[in-house]
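Hi C.,

You asked whether I'd gotten around to modeling the 530-residue construct. I have! Everything is below, sequence then structure, no commentary in between.
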Amino acid sequence: MRPAQPSACVRRTPAAWTCGSACCPCWRTGDGGTAWRSGRASAADPPPRRRSRATSPPCCLRRRPVPPESVTPFVPGARVHFVGVGGAGMCGLAEAMARAGYTVTGSDLLLGPSVDALRALGVRLYQGHAAEHVGDATLVVRTAATDARNPEVAEAEARGVPVLKRAEALGRWVARGRVVAVAGTHGKTSTTTMITGVLAEAGLDPTAFVGGAVRAWGGNYRAGADRLFVVEADEYDRSFLHLDPDVAVVTNVEADHLDIYGDEEGVHAAFGAFLGRVRGDGTVVACADDPGARAVVQGRADAVTYGRSEGATLHVADVERTADGTRFTVRERGAAPEPLQIRVPGLHNVLNATAAAAAARALGVPWDAVRRGLAGYTGVGRRFERVGSAAGVDVLDDYAHHPTEVRATLDALRQAFPERRLVVVFQPHLFSRTRDFHDAFGAALAGADVVWVTDVYPAREQPLPGVTGALVADSTREHATGPVHYHAELATLPEAVARTLVPGDVCVTLGAGSIETVGSRLVRLLKEES
Protein backbone atom coordinates (compact mmCIF):
# COMPACT_ATOMS: atom_id res chain seq x y z
CA MET A 1 0.00 0.00 0.00
CA ARG A 2 1.29 3.43 -0.94
CA PRO A 3 2.15 5.92 1.82
CA ALA A 4 -0.55 8.50 2.44
CA GLN A 5 -0.26 11.73 0.48
CA PRO A 6 -0.35 15.11 2.21
CA SER A 7 -3.66 16.90 2.05
CA ALA A 8 -2.27 19.63 -0.21
CA CYS A 9 -1.84 17.09 -2.99
CA VAL A 10 -5.02 15.09 -2.66
CA ARG A 11 -7.02 17.08 -5.17
CA ARG A 12 -4.22 17.11 -7.77
CA THR A 13 -5.39 20.44 -9.14
CA PRO A 14 -3.34 23.58 -9.76
CA ALA A 15 -4.93 25.26 -6.76
CA ALA A 16 -3.61 22.46 -4.57
CA TRP A 17 0.01 22.98 -5.47
CA THR A 18 1.93 24.58 -2.66
CA CYS A 19 5.35 24.99 -4.25
CA GLY A 20 4.33 27.41 -7.01
CA SER A 21 6.16 25.34 -9.61
CA ALA A 22 4.95 24.64 -13.11
CA CYS A 23 3.47 21.37 -11.99
CA CYS A 24 2.93 19.52 -8.74
CA PRO A 25 6.29 18.37 -7.31
CA CYS A 26 4.61 15.25 -5.96
CA TRP A 27 5.39 13.76 -9.36
CA ARG A 28 9.07 14.58 -9.04
CA THR A 29 12.00 13.03 -7.33
CA GLY A 30 15.26 14.53 -6.23
CA ASP A 31 17.18 11.33 -6.98
CA GLY A 32 16.76 11.07 -10.73
CA GLY A 33 14.01 8.50 -10.38
CA THR A 34 16.35 5.57 -9.96
CA ALA A 35 16.71 5.01 -6.20
CA TRP A 36 14.17 2.28 -5.93
CA ARG A 37 15.92 -0.92 -4.96
CA SER A 38 15.27 -1.41 -1.26
CA GLY A 39 14.74 2.35 -1.03
CA ARG A 40 18.35 3.28 -1.81
CA ALA A 41 20.26 4.32 -4.88
CA SER A 42 23.12 2.12 -6.04
CA ALA A 43 26.36 2.85 -7.79
CA ALA A 44 24.72 1.63 -10.99
CA ASP A 45 22.22 4.48 -10.94
CA PRO A 46 22.87 7.65 -12.94
CA PRO A 47 23.44 10.82 -10.91
CA PRO A 48 20.36 12.84 -10.00
CA ARG A 49 19.28 15.64 -12.27
CA ARG A 50 19.32 18.93 -10.39
CA ARG A 51 16.28 21.16 -10.43
CA SER A 52 15.83 24.80 -9.71
CA ARG A 53 12.75 24.07 -7.62
CA ALA A 54 11.64 21.33 -5.28
CA THR A 55 15.17 19.97 -5.01
CA SER A 56 14.30 18.41 -1.67
CA PRO A 57 11.52 15.89 -2.23
CA PRO A 58 8.39 16.71 -0.24
CA CYS A 59 6.92 14.15 2.10
CA CYS A 60 4.63 12.79 -0.61
CA LEU A 61 7.71 11.59 -2.50
CA ARG A 62 8.37 8.90 0.05
CA ARG A 63 9.17 5.85 -1.98
CA ARG A 64 6.35 3.56 -2.97
CA PRO A 65 6.78 0.22 -1.22
CA VAL A 66 7.85 -2.32 -3.82
CA PRO A 67 6.97 -6.00 -3.38
CA PRO A 68 10.01 -8.25 -2.94
CA GLU A 69 9.34 -9.97 -6.27
CA SER A 70 9.63 -6.58 -7.97
CA VAL A 71 13.14 -6.05 -6.63
CA THR A 72 14.77 -9.46 -6.88
CA PRO A 73 15.77 -9.52 -10.58
CA PHE A 74 17.17 -5.97 -10.58
CA VAL A 75 20.09 -5.87 -8.18
CA PRO A 76 23.32 -3.88 -8.48
CA GLY A 77 25.55 -5.53 -11.07
CA ALA A 78 22.71 -7.44 -12.75
CA ARG A 79 23.46 -8.75 -16.23
CA VAL A 80 20.32 -8.88 -18.36
CA HIS A 81 19.98 -10.70 -21.69
CA PHE A 82 17.06 -9.87 -24.00
CA VAL A 83 15.74 -12.58 -26.33
CA GLY A 84 14.03 -10.82 -29.23
CA VAL A 85 15.69 -7.50 -28.45
CA GLY A 86 14.64 -5.89 -31.74
CA GLY A 87 10.95 -5.94 -30.84
CA ALA A 88 9.17 -2.63 -30.41
CA GLY A 89 8.73 -3.07 -26.68
CA MET A 90 11.94 -4.94 -25.97
CA CYS A 91 14.50 -2.46 -27.29
CA GLY A 92 13.11 0.39 -25.17
CA LEU A 93 13.25 -1.63 -21.96
CA ALA A 94 16.75 -2.83 -22.84
CA GLU A 95 17.81 0.79 -23.36
CA ALA A 96 16.34 1.80 -20.00
CA MET A 97 18.31 -0.91 -18.20
CA ALA A 98 21.50 -0.11 -20.09
CA ARG A 99 21.19 3.57 -19.19
CA ALA A 100 20.64 2.60 -15.55
CA GLY A 101 24.02 0.90 -15.49
CA TYR A 102 23.14 -2.76 -15.99
CA THR A 103 25.16 -4.96 -18.32
CA VAL A 104 22.75 -5.63 -21.18
CA THR A 105 23.04 -8.04 -24.11
CA GLY A 106 20.46 -9.02 -26.69
CA SER A 107 19.69 -11.25 -29.64
CA ASP A 108 17.19 -11.40 -32.47
CA LEU A 109 16.77 -13.03 -35.85
CA LEU A 110 17.11 -9.63 -37.51
CA LEU A 111 18.81 -6.56 -36.07
CA GLY A 112 17.40 -3.47 -37.76
CA PRO A 113 17.20 0.25 -37.01
CA SER A 114 15.23 -0.39 -33.80
CA VAL A 115 18.45 -1.38 -32.02
CA ASP A 116 20.54 1.59 -33.17
CA ALA A 117 20.23 3.26 -29.75
CA LEU A 118 21.47 0.08 -28.09
CA ARG A 119 24.46 -0.08 -30.42
CA ALA A 120 25.27 3.53 -29.53
CA LEU A 121 25.27 2.57 -25.84
CA GLY A 122 27.73 -0.25 -26.50
CA VAL A 123 25.24 -3.07 -25.92
CA ARG A 124 26.48 -6.39 -27.30
CA LEU A 125 23.99 -7.72 -29.84
CA TYR A 126 23.79 -11.13 -31.52
CA GLN A 127 22.00 -11.91 -34.77
CA GLY A 128 20.30 -15.27 -34.46
CA HIS A 129 19.68 -17.38 -31.37
CA ALA A 130 22.18 -19.71 -29.69
CA ALA A 131 22.58 -21.03 -26.15
CA GLU A 132 25.99 -19.39 -25.72
CA HIS A 133 24.44 -15.93 -26.13
CA VAL A 134 23.10 -16.18 -22.57
CA GLY A 135 26.68 -15.88 -21.31
CA ASP A 136 26.86 -14.93 -17.64
CA ALA A 137 23.41 -13.32 -17.56
CA THR A 138 21.68 -13.19 -14.18
CA LEU A 139 18.29 -12.48 -15.79
CA VAL A 140 16.76 -13.24 -19.19
CA VAL A 141 13.89 -11.19 -20.61
CA ARG A 142 11.95 -12.67 -23.52
CA THR A 143 9.13 -11.60 -25.81
CA ALA A 144 5.68 -13.10 -25.36
CA ALA A 145 6.13 -14.90 -28.68
CA THR A 146 9.27 -16.71 -27.48
CA ASP A 147 9.02 -19.89 -25.41
CA ALA A 148 11.18 -22.67 -24.00
CA ARG A 149 11.88 -24.00 -27.50
CA ASN A 150 14.18 -21.03 -28.04
CA PRO A 151 17.75 -22.23 -27.32
CA GLU A 152 18.56 -19.18 -25.20
CA VAL A 153 15.44 -19.52 -23.06
CA ALA A 154 16.09 -23.25 -22.73
CA GLU A 155 19.69 -22.61 -21.67
CA ALA A 156 18.66 -20.05 -19.06
CA GLU A 157 16.02 -22.35 -17.58
CA ALA A 158 18.44 -25.28 -17.50
CA ARG A 159 20.94 -23.16 -15.54
CA GLY A 160 18.33 -21.75 -13.17
CA VAL A 161 18.62 -18.21 -14.53
CA PRO A 162 15.32 -16.33 -13.97
CA VAL A 163 13.36 -15.81 -17.19
CA LEU A 164 10.73 -13.07 -17.39
CA LYS A 165 8.39 -12.09 -20.17
CA ARG A 166 8.89 -8.52 -21.28
CA ALA A 167 5.58 -7.52 -19.68
CA GLU A 168 6.64 -8.93 -16.30
CA ALA A 169 10.00 -7.18 -16.47
CA LEU A 170 8.40 -3.87 -17.45
CA GLY A 171 5.85 -4.12 -14.65
CA ARG A 172 8.57 -4.66 -12.08
CA TRP A 173 10.76 -1.92 -13.57
CA VAL A 174 8.08 0.77 -13.29
CA ALA A 175 6.67 -0.41 -9.94
CA ARG A 176 8.97 2.01 -8.10
CA GLY A 177 7.16 5.11 -9.36
CA ARG A 178 3.86 6.60 -10.46
CA VAL A 179 2.46 4.89 -13.56
CA VAL A 180 0.18 6.16 -16.30
CA ALA A 181 -0.87 3.13 -18.37
CA VAL A 182 -2.67 3.47 -21.70
CA ALA A 183 -4.73 0.47 -22.78
CA GLY A 184 -7.15 -0.09 -25.62
CA THR A 185 -7.63 -2.08 -28.78
CA HIS A 186 -6.59 0.96 -30.84
CA GLY A 187 -4.79 4.25 -30.28
CA LYS A 188 -2.43 3.21 -27.48
CA THR A 189 0.83 4.37 -29.04
CA SER A 190 -0.44 7.76 -30.19
CA THR A 191 -2.20 8.45 -26.88
CA THR A 192 0.82 7.41 -24.80
CA THR A 193 3.03 9.70 -26.86
CA MET A 194 0.59 12.61 -26.52
CA ILE A 195 0.39 12.19 -22.73
CA THR A 196 4.17 12.19 -22.48
CA GLY A 197 4.41 15.40 -24.51
CA VAL A 198 1.79 17.14 -22.40
CA LEU A 199 3.50 16.16 -19.14
CA ALA A 200 6.81 17.42 -20.48
CA GLU A 201 5.19 20.75 -21.37
CA ALA A 202 3.94 20.93 -17.78
CA GLY A 203 7.51 20.88 -16.48
CA LEU A 204 7.66 17.18 -15.68
CA ASP A 205 10.25 14.77 -17.05
CA PRO A 206 8.50 11.41 -17.51
CA THR A 207 10.02 8.17 -18.70
CA ALA A 208 7.92 6.60 -21.45
CA PHE A 209 7.69 3.21 -23.15
CA VAL A 210 5.64 2.94 -26.36
CA GLY A 211 5.18 0.42 -29.15
CA GLY A 212 6.17 2.65 -32.05
CA ALA A 213 8.96 4.93 -33.17
CA VAL A 214 8.29 8.47 -31.93
CA ARG A 215 9.88 11.01 -34.23
CA ALA A 216 10.61 13.50 -31.46
CA TRP A 217 12.39 10.83 -29.37
CA GLY A 218 14.25 9.05 -32.14
CA GLY A 219 12.79 5.73 -30.98
CA ASN A 220 10.18 4.15 -28.73
CA TYR A 221 11.71 5.07 -25.36
CA ARG A 222 11.99 8.42 -23.63
CA ALA A 223 14.42 8.62 -20.72
CA GLY A 224 13.16 10.95 -18.00
CA ALA A 225 14.46 12.02 -14.62
CA ASP A 226 11.16 11.95 -12.73
CA ARG A 227 9.80 8.91 -10.95
CA LEU A 228 6.83 9.05 -13.32
CA PHE A 229 6.28 6.45 -16.04
CA VAL A 230 3.96 6.61 -19.05
CA VAL A 231 3.49 3.13 -20.47
CA GLU A 232 1.66 1.64 -23.41
CA ALA A 233 -0.31 -1.20 -21.82
CA ASP A 234 -0.62 -4.05 -24.31
CA GLU A 235 -3.54 -6.42 -23.94
CA TYR A 236 -1.92 -9.20 -25.99
CA ASP A 237 -1.24 -12.25 -23.82
CA ARG A 238 -2.76 -10.26 -20.93
CA SER A 239 0.49 -8.31 -20.70
CA PHE A 240 -1.15 -5.29 -19.05
CA LEU A 241 -2.02 -7.37 -16.01
CA HIS A 242 1.57 -6.88 -14.82
CA LEU A 243 1.00 -3.15 -14.32
CA ASP A 244 -0.42 -1.37 -11.24
CA PRO A 245 -1.27 2.08 -12.62
CA ASP A 246 -2.11 5.28 -10.84
CA VAL A 247 -3.89 6.50 -13.97
CA ALA A 248 -5.34 3.94 -16.38
CA VAL A 249 -6.59 5.05 -19.80
CA VAL A 250 -8.92 2.87 -21.89
CA THR A 251 -9.28 4.24 -25.42
CA ASN A 252 -11.64 1.51 -26.65
CA VAL A 253 -12.36 -2.19 -26.19
CA GLU A 254 -13.16 -4.44 -29.15
CA ALA A 255 -12.74 -8.06 -30.11
CA ASP A 256 -9.11 -8.76 -31.02
CA HIS A 257 -6.47 -11.36 -30.16
CA LEU A 258 -9.21 -13.97 -30.12
CA ASP A 259 -6.48 -16.61 -30.26
CA ILE A 260 -5.82 -15.55 -26.66
CA TYR A 261 -9.28 -14.54 -25.40
CA GLY A 262 -11.66 -16.74 -27.36
CA ASP A 263 -14.40 -14.15 -27.69
CA GLU A 264 -15.27 -10.53 -26.94
CA GLU A 265 -16.44 -11.44 -23.46
CA GLY A 266 -12.95 -12.71 -22.70
CA VAL A 267 -11.49 -9.42 -23.94
CA HIS A 268 -13.83 -7.45 -21.66
CA ALA A 269 -12.92 -9.63 -18.70
CA ALA A 270 -9.22 -8.94 -19.24
CA PHE A 271 -9.76 -5.18 -19.41
CA GLY A 272 -11.86 -5.40 -16.26
CA ALA A 273 -9.01 -7.21 -14.53
CA PHE A 274 -6.60 -4.51 -15.72
CA LEU A 275 -8.77 -1.78 -14.23
CA GLY A 276 -8.95 -3.81 -11.04
CA ARG A 277 -5.22 -3.22 -10.64
CA VAL A 278 -5.56 0.58 -10.50
CA ARG A 279 -4.27 1.85 -7.16
CA GLY A 280 -6.77 2.84 -4.53
CA ASP A 281 -6.49 6.59 -5.01
CA GLY A 282 -5.98 6.32 -8.77
CA THR A 283 -8.05 7.43 -11.74
CA VAL A 284 -9.60 5.57 -14.65
CA VAL A 285 -10.01 7.44 -17.95
CA ALA A 286 -12.29 5.92 -20.60
CA CYS A 287 -13.84 6.89 -23.93
CA ALA A 288 -17.54 7.60 -23.55
CA ASP A 289 -18.07 7.12 -27.30
CA ASP A 290 -16.90 3.51 -27.29
CA PRO A 291 -19.40 0.86 -26.12
CA GLY A 292 -16.65 -1.49 -24.96
CA ALA A 293 -14.85 1.16 -22.92
CA ARG A 294 -18.14 2.26 -21.36
CA ALA A 295 -18.95 -1.33 -20.44
CA VAL A 296 -15.68 -2.04 -18.63
CA VAL A 297 -15.89 1.13 -16.49
CA GLN A 298 -19.60 0.88 -15.72
CA GLY A 299 -20.22 1.52 -12.04
CA ARG A 300 -16.73 2.86 -11.29
CA ALA A 301 -16.83 6.01 -9.17
CA ASP A 302 -13.26 6.89 -10.20
CA ALA A 303 -14.00 6.92 -13.94
CA VAL A 304 -13.37 10.08 -15.95
CA THR A 305 -14.93 9.87 -19.40
CA TYR A 306 -14.23 11.76 -22.59
CA GLY A 307 -15.73 12.03 -26.07
CA ARG A 308 -18.56 13.60 -28.04
CA SER A 309 -21.23 11.74 -26.07
CA GLU A 310 -23.48 13.81 -23.84
CA GLY A 311 -22.51 13.47 -20.21
CA ALA A 312 -18.80 12.87 -20.87
CA THR A 313 -16.60 14.42 -18.18
CA LEU A 314 -14.50 15.98 -20.95
CA HIS A 315 -16.93 16.77 -23.75
CA VAL A 316 -15.56 17.17 -27.29
CA ALA A 317 -17.24 19.57 -29.71
CA ASP A 318 -16.61 21.91 -32.64
CA VAL A 319 -14.35 19.45 -34.50
CA GLU A 320 -13.03 21.19 -37.61
CA ARG A 321 -10.47 20.21 -40.24
CA THR A 322 -7.67 22.71 -40.78
CA ALA A 323 -4.93 23.01 -43.39
CA ASP A 324 -2.45 21.30 -41.08
CA GLY A 325 -4.58 19.12 -38.82
CA THR A 326 -7.70 19.41 -36.67
CA ARG A 327 -9.03 21.86 -34.11
CA PHE A 328 -11.74 21.22 -31.55
CA THR A 329 -12.93 22.23 -28.11
CA VAL A 330 -13.14 20.34 -24.84
CA ARG A 331 -15.47 21.31 -22.02
CA GLU A 332 -14.45 19.81 -18.67
CA ARG A 333 -17.27 19.22 -16.18
CA GLY A 334 -19.35 22.00 -17.72
CA ALA A 335 -16.63 24.66 -17.52
CA ALA A 336 -15.84 27.03 -20.37
CA PRO A 337 -14.67 25.22 -23.51
CA GLU A 338 -10.92 24.87 -24.00
CA PRO A 339 -9.75 25.30 -27.62
CA LEU A 340 -7.26 22.64 -28.73
CA GLN A 341 -5.43 21.87 -31.96
CA ILE A 342 -3.46 18.87 -33.23
CA ARG A 343 -1.36 18.56 -36.35
CA VAL A 344 -2.87 15.25 -37.46
CA PRO A 345 -6.24 14.55 -39.11
CA GLY A 346 -9.04 12.23 -38.07
CA LEU A 347 -11.65 11.98 -35.34
CA HIS A 348 -9.73 9.07 -33.83
CA ASN A 349 -6.81 11.41 -33.22
CA VAL A 350 -9.14 13.99 -31.67
CA LEU A 351 -10.28 11.31 -29.22
CA ASN A 352 -6.69 10.21 -28.56
CA ALA A 353 -5.77 13.82 -27.81
CA THR A 354 -8.73 14.21 -25.47
CA ALA A 355 -7.72 11.02 -23.66
CA ALA A 356 -4.28 12.55 -23.19
CA ALA A 357 -5.87 15.73 -21.86
CA ALA A 358 -8.00 13.74 -19.41
CA ALA A 359 -5.00 11.79 -18.11
CA ALA A 360 -2.96 14.96 -17.72
CA ARG A 361 -5.80 16.73 -15.93
CA ALA A 362 -6.03 13.76 -13.54
CA LEU A 363 -2.42 14.57 -12.65
CA GLY A 364 -3.21 18.24 -12.13
CA VAL A 365 -1.71 19.59 -15.36
CA PRO A 366 -3.11 23.03 -16.31
CA TRP A 367 -4.90 23.53 -19.60
CA ASP A 368 -2.26 25.79 -21.10
CA ALA A 369 0.28 22.96 -20.81
CA VAL A 370 -2.24 20.54 -22.32
CA ARG A 371 -2.72 22.92 -25.22
CA ARG A 372 1.01 23.31 -25.87
CA GLY A 373 1.73 19.62 -25.53
CA LEU A 374 -0.95 18.57 -28.00
CA ALA A 375 -0.01 21.30 -30.47
CA GLY A 376 3.56 20.01 -30.40
CA TYR A 377 2.62 16.41 -31.18
CA THR A 378 4.32 15.48 -34.46
CA GLY A 379 3.17 11.90 -34.75
CA VAL A 380 4.52 8.38 -34.45
CA GLY A 381 6.22 6.26 -37.08
CA ARG A 382 3.80 4.20 -39.16
CA ARG A 383 0.84 6.24 -37.95
CA PHE A 384 -0.37 8.26 -40.94
CA GLU A 385 3.29 8.66 -41.90
CA ARG A 386 4.24 10.37 -45.14
CA VAL A 387 6.72 8.20 -47.03
CA GLY A 388 7.27 10.53 -49.98
CA SER A 389 5.88 11.96 -53.20
CA ALA A 390 6.72 11.30 -56.86
CA ALA A 391 5.03 11.71 -60.23
CA GLY A 392 2.15 13.60 -58.62
CA VAL A 393 1.40 10.73 -56.20
CA ASP A 394 1.57 11.04 -52.40
CA VAL A 395 2.54 7.83 -50.60
CA LEU A 396 1.73 7.24 -46.92
CA ASP A 397 2.08 4.33 -44.51
CA ASP A 398 -0.02 3.33 -41.51
CA TYR A 399 0.06 0.54 -38.94
CA ALA A 400 -3.70 -0.14 -39.15
CA HIS A 401 -4.24 -3.89 -38.80
CA HIS A 402 -7.76 -4.14 -37.34
CA PRO A 403 -10.97 -3.30 -39.24
CA THR A 404 -11.74 -0.36 -36.96
CA GLU A 405 -8.24 1.03 -37.46
CA VAL A 406 -8.50 0.63 -41.23
CA ARG A 407 -11.79 2.52 -41.26
CA ALA A 408 -10.42 5.31 -39.05
CA THR A 409 -7.33 5.71 -41.24
CA LEU A 410 -9.40 5.89 -44.43
CA ASP A 411 -11.70 8.48 -42.82
CA ALA A 412 -8.64 10.55 -41.90
CA LEU A 413 -7.30 10.25 -45.45
CA ARG A 414 -10.62 11.46 -46.84
CA GLN A 415 -10.41 14.41 -44.46
CA ALA A 416 -6.85 15.24 -45.47
CA PHE A 417 -7.28 14.60 -49.22
CA PRO A 418 -10.98 15.13 -49.92
CA GLU A 419 -10.86 15.41 -53.72
CA ARG A 420 -8.29 12.77 -54.59
CA ARG A 421 -8.40 9.11 -55.61
CA LEU A 422 -7.47 6.88 -52.68
CA VAL A 423 -5.50 3.69 -53.39
CA VAL A 424 -5.03 1.31 -50.45
CA VAL A 425 -2.46 -1.50 -50.31
CA PHE A 426 -3.28 -3.83 -47.41
CA GLN A 427 -1.40 -6.73 -45.84
CA PRO A 428 -3.46 -8.80 -43.38
CA HIS A 429 -1.63 -9.52 -40.11
CA LEU A 430 -1.91 -12.96 -38.46
CA PHE A 431 -3.82 -15.94 -39.81
CA SER A 432 -6.14 -15.98 -36.80
CA ARG A 433 -7.07 -12.31 -37.21
CA THR A 434 -7.65 -12.82 -40.95
CA ARG A 435 -9.90 -15.79 -40.23
CA ASP A 436 -11.86 -13.93 -37.58
CA PHE A 437 -12.25 -10.54 -39.28
CA HIS A 438 -11.97 -10.95 -43.07
CA ASP A 439 -15.58 -9.83 -43.58
CA ALA A 440 -15.07 -6.74 -41.42
CA PHE A 441 -11.81 -5.96 -43.23
CA GLY A 442 -13.66 -6.11 -46.53
CA ALA A 443 -16.30 -3.65 -45.36
CA ALA A 444 -13.65 -1.26 -44.04
CA LEU A 445 -11.40 -1.41 -47.11
CA ALA A 446 -14.36 -0.70 -49.38
CA GLY A 447 -14.03 2.94 -48.31
CA ALA A 448 -11.10 3.30 -50.74
CA ASP A 449 -11.38 3.89 -54.48
CA VAL A 450 -8.90 1.14 -55.38
CA VAL A 451 -7.83 -1.74 -53.11
CA TRP A 452 -4.82 -4.02 -53.32
CA VAL A 453 -4.52 -6.97 -50.93
CA THR A 454 -1.44 -9.13 -50.48
CA ASP A 455 -0.99 -12.35 -48.54
CA VAL A 456 -1.05 -12.70 -44.76
CA TYR A 457 1.95 -11.67 -42.67
CA PRO A 458 2.21 -14.62 -40.23
CA ALA A 459 4.27 -13.03 -37.43
CA ARG A 460 4.21 -15.57 -34.59
CA GLU A 461 1.61 -17.91 -36.15
CA GLN A 462 1.62 -21.02 -38.29
CA PRO A 463 -0.62 -21.13 -41.41
CA LEU A 464 -4.26 -22.10 -41.01
CA PRO A 465 -5.96 -24.22 -43.71
CA GLY A 466 -7.79 -22.06 -46.24
CA VAL A 467 -6.75 -18.75 -44.65
CA THR A 468 -4.96 -16.42 -47.08
CA GLY A 469 -5.20 -12.78 -48.07
CA ALA A 470 -7.66 -13.86 -50.77
CA LEU A 471 -10.32 -14.10 -48.04
CA VAL A 472 -9.98 -10.36 -47.43
CA ALA A 473 -9.91 -9.55 -51.15
CA ASP A 474 -13.07 -11.58 -51.78
CA SER A 475 -14.85 -9.90 -48.87
CA THR A 476 -13.79 -6.47 -50.14
CA ARG A 477 -15.25 -7.21 -53.58
CA GLU A 478 -18.62 -7.83 -51.93
CA HIS A 479 -18.64 -4.26 -50.56
CA ALA A 480 -16.50 -2.16 -52.90
CA THR A 481 -17.63 -0.16 -55.91
CA GLY A 482 -14.10 0.18 -57.33
CA PRO A 483 -11.37 -2.25 -58.42
CA VAL A 484 -10.06 -4.82 -55.93
CA HIS A 485 -6.81 -6.67 -56.73
CA TYR A 486 -5.28 -9.65 -54.97
CA HIS A 487 -1.50 -9.92 -55.39
CA ALA A 488 -0.11 -12.56 -53.05
CA GLU A 489 3.61 -11.94 -53.59
CA LEU A 490 4.88 -8.98 -51.59
CA ALA A 491 8.18 -8.98 -53.50
CA THR A 492 6.52 -7.95 -56.77
CA LEU A 493 3.67 -5.93 -55.28
CA PRO A 494 5.27 -2.45 -55.62
CA GLU A 495 5.78 -2.88 -59.37
CA ALA A 496 2.20 -4.05 -59.85
CA VAL A 497 0.75 -1.14 -57.86
CA ALA A 498 3.04 1.50 -59.41
CA ARG A 499 1.83 0.65 -62.92
CA THR A 500 -1.74 1.63 -61.94
CA LEU A 501 -1.04 4.92 -60.15
CA VAL A 502 -1.73 8.24 -61.86
CA PRO A 503 -0.94 11.86 -60.92
CA GLY A 504 -3.22 13.06 -58.14
CA ASP A 505 -3.50 9.67 -56.43
CA VAL A 506 -2.95 9.17 -52.72
CA CYS A 507 -1.58 5.69 -52.02
CA VAL A 508 -1.42 4.30 -48.48
CA THR A 509 0.09 1.02 -47.32
CA LEU A 510 -1.68 -0.55 -44.34
CA GLY A 511 -0.72 -3.35 -41.97
CA ALA A 512 1.44 -4.37 -39.02
CA GLY A 513 3.89 -6.56 -40.93
CA SER A 514 6.42 -6.20 -43.73
CA ILE A 515 4.11 -3.99 -45.80
CA GLU A 516 6.07 -1.03 -44.40
CA THR A 517 8.80 -1.78 -46.96
CA VAL A 518 6.46 -1.23 -49.92
CA GLY A 519 5.97 2.55 -49.64
CA SER A 520 9.60 3.53 -50.16
CA ARG A 521 9.87 1.14 -53.10
CA LEU A 522 6.76 2.68 -54.64
CA VAL A 523 8.25 6.16 -54.39
CA ARG A 524 11.48 4.98 -55.97
CA LEU A 525 9.65 3.29 -58.86
CA LEU A 526 7.50 6.35 -59.49
CA LYS A 527 10.58 8.57 -59.59
CA GLU A 528 12.25 6.23 -62.08
CA GLU A 529 9.21 6.25 -64.34
CA SER A 530 8.60 10.01 -64.24
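If it helps when you're writing up: The chain is about 30% helix and 20% strand.

Thanks,
B.
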